[in-house]
Amino acid sequence: MKPRAMLLIGMIAAAAALRLLPHPSNFTPIGALALFAGAHFDDKRWAFIVPLAAMFLSDILIGFHGQMPVVYAAFAVIVCMGFALKEKKTALRVTGASLAAATFFFIVSNFAVWAFDGLYPMTFQGLVTCYVAAIPFFQNWLLGTLFYAAVLFGGFAFLESKLAVLAPARG
Asked: Is 34 a member of any domain?
């Protein structure tokens, strides 16, 4: 396996493993690693497989829940958002994609909670109540996504600038 692919897989596995360590609620690298995978893997299949597999392996230890299909589908969409960063990974673009990914995940995952968990009335007011109740979780998800995107994208860019063996394949 090429050094670039090995490092990418290692960084994603390490980021997913951080879910297993104590951390503030929802302050995780999950959104950032999906963006990172989409932006960095040359083979789009691996951009989906590696982060989804890393998430699944950590979920085995954390536990499964009823919203997993929605969460994994949203995660796959965030990988696709990362594809838009592939050619130009500026700080502004990564920050914008991180904000978009966190917001997208908040909207989709909380809509699913409202629609499928039976915690809120199936009314517009119930939906609004669900979203309002989730705001504290969104804050940490957003901060975690921004922080880990800076670490992953910035760290990898630094390593790429120092080690020619990590340069992406050009074809």
From this structure: yes
What's the CATH code of the domain at 37?
A: 1.10.1760
Residue 147 lies in a domain: yes
Instruction: List the one residue out of 117, 18, 111 whose CA is nearest residue 73.
Output: 111
Domain annotation covers residue 169: no
- Tens of pLDDT, residue by residue, the chain (171 residues): 688 788 888 887 887 788 787 778 888 888 999 999 999 988 899 899 988 888 888 888 888 888 889 999 999 999 999 999 999 999 999 999 999 999 999 999 999 999 999 999 999 999 999 999 999 999 999 999 999 999 999 998 998 888 877 776 665
Q: Which domain holds residue 116?
A: 3-164
Place of tokens 């789009």: 44
| DSSP-assigned states of every residue in 59-71 | HHHH---TTHHHH
The Cα 32–Cα 29 span in angstroms is 5
